[in-house]
Design a protein that fits this description.
Layout lengths: L1 E9 L2 E9 L3 E5 L6 H9 L6 E6 L2 E5 L4 E2 L7 E4 L11 H7 L13 H8 L14 H13 L5 E5 L7 H17 L4 E5 L2 H7 L2 E6 L2 E6 L1 H5 L13 E11 L4 E6 L2 E6 L8 E7 L3 E4 L10 E12 L4 E8 L2 E8 H6 L7 E6 L9 E3 L6
Parallel strand pairs: 3-9, 3-10, 7-8, 8-9
Antiparallel strand pairs: 1-2, 1-4, 4-5, 5-6, 10-11, 12-13, 12-15, 13-14, 15-21, 16-20, 17-18, 17-20, 18-19
Helix pairs in contact: 2-4, 4-5
Protein name: Molybdenum ABC transporter ATP-binding protein
GO molecular function, one term: ATP binding
Organism: Pseudophaeobacter arcticus
Length: 365
């Protein structure tokens, strides 16, 4: 358990917050300038806040009142930056082994070969960083952090410098890190897709303060706190792969309901997280016929919330889980929607993007 309490003047506002990060991946989620990097750098010991306290399990890293300040190299943290920051004169193997210099004597060490295999970097060991792609460099940076035997991994927007293809390449490795390596992680991001794929808990920051804390499903389903705007609001469902069809679709079981997606890579039986954007859900009071959309889920209206504009956000209960639908207020009135009303949620299979589907061995709580 990481416990953080900080107070620090920061530009136009004061960073003033407290939160706890349990085991798993805790994502600091917020827009640019919200204070995310300042928080992670304070945990790392790269900046010294005016007041505050940082404790990791039973170790104090910083406590102003008690006069405790551990320098960064004594905090036993692994840091993955936006850019890999590998040593250009060292090979990949030498970069990986460099992390072990900072492992405390007697600390449990990760097996080198297991980490190399998990990250798929075996063929890269004799190369120098100049010969690596951006995604390969980040995988090496992850391995170097793991091999330092940290008590906590810090990741400051590690995918921000990568293009979409490289992000899609790296995300599965962070999922494996979450599920296979029992080291907690504090992960900074402004991407709702990354939150959906990786987070076991989320801390939303705005102007240096905690706006909301909860599971990925709770936070992504609350459009009022979405740092990236209402268009990023959506539901996070858990589903299991049933089968792959020869026409390129995968069929999933979501609470007993079938959900069809463009073919996923995971084998039948695998548990997945599926993010469905509210703007991609259409509502009907009767079961529609003659539609091209394959996913038609029976639902019940839980809540309708209107904004200042023409839109309305409808919360829905389904056997697959809680869904959101973003429609106009005019449509809500025309359909006579109200809490408790029965309806159908219609979702196009192709509307669910590949990067909105990820492994869920650590299910959202």
């Amino acid at each position: 358990m990481l416990k953080v309490s900080l107070c620090q003047p920061l530009g136009q506002f004061t960073l003033d917050l407290s939160f706890e990060a349990p085991a798993g991946v805790t994502v600091l989620f917020g827009g640019s300038g919200a204070g995310k990097t300042t928080v992670i750098n304070a945990v790392a010991g790269l900046i010294r806040p005016k007041t505050g306290r940082v404790a990791l399990n039973d170790r104090l890293l910083f406590d102003l009142e008690q006069g405790v300040w551990l320098p960064p190299h004594r905090r036993r943290l692994g840091y993955i930056f936006q850019e890999a920051r590998l040593f250009p004169h060292l090979t990949v193997r030498q970069n990986l082994l460099f992390g072990r210099w900072f492992a405390p004597r007697g600390a449990a060490r990760e097996d080198f070969d297991r980490i190399v295999a998990m990250l798929g970097i075996g063929p890269l060991l004799q190369r120098h960083p100049v010969a690596l792609s951006g995604g390969e460099k980040q995988r090496v940076a992850i391995g170097r952090a793991l091999l330092s035997s940290p008590d906590l991994i810090l990741a400051d927007e590690p995918l921000a410098a990568l293009d979409e293809a490289r992000k899609e390449e790296i995300l599965p490795y962070f999922e494996r890190l979450r599920d296979e390596v029992k080291i907690p992680m504090l992960y900074v991001s402004h991407s709702a897709a990354e939150v959906a794929r990786l987070a076991t808990s989320v801390v939303v920051l705005k102007d240096g303060q905690v706006q909301r804390q909860g599971s990925a499903a709770e936070v992504l389903g609350d459009d009022r706190v979405m740092p990236t705007g209402v268009r990023a609001a959506g539901a996070l469902l858990e589903a299991r792969v049933l089968r792959h069809h020869p026409d390129g679709l995968s069929e999933l079981d979501a609470g007993g309901l079938s959900l069809f997606l463009p073919q996923v890579q995971q084998a039948p039986g695998s548990l997945l997280r599926v993010r469905i954007l509210a703007q991609d859900v259409i509502l009907s009071r009767q079961r529609p016929e003659g539609l091209s959309a394959l996913n038609i889920l029976p639902a019940e209206v839980e809540q309708i919330r209107s904004g200042s504009g023409p839109g309305a956000m409808v919360s829905l209960n389904t056997d697959a889980g809680r869904l959101l639908a973003r429609i106009t207020r005019r449509s809500a009135q025309a359909l006579e929607l109200s809490p408790g009303a029965a309806c159908y949620a219609v979702i196009k299979s192709v509307a669910i993007a590949r990067n909105d589907v990820g492994g869920a061995a650590a299910a959202q709580r």
